[in-house]
Amino acid sequence: MARDMSDKEILKMELDQLKKEVSTPRTPVAANCTDTIAFVEGLLPNDPLIKGVPDDKNPYKGDKGGCVVT
Length: 70
What we know:
Protein name: Guanine nucleotide-binding protein subunit gamma
Oligomer: single chain
Shape: elongated
Subunit structure: G proteins are composed of 3 units; alpha, beta and gamma.
Structural class: mainly alpha
Keywords: Cell membrane, Lipoprotein, Membrane, Transducer
GO molecular function: G-protein beta-subunit binding
Family: Belongs to the G protein gamma family.
């Protein structure tokens, strides 16, 4: 697409994009980090990677047998 455009058109597109970006509301990184940490810690009690999966809800445990590689 950019190959078919003149330099002036490309610069106009870049200027329009920069105008959009400058009007985007920004927040400090520290505030975003605090929110992210609070979110993750709120989900921590239900996280199966941290807490584990109970045997009765684990589809890979049970009396299905196993695989033996010889």
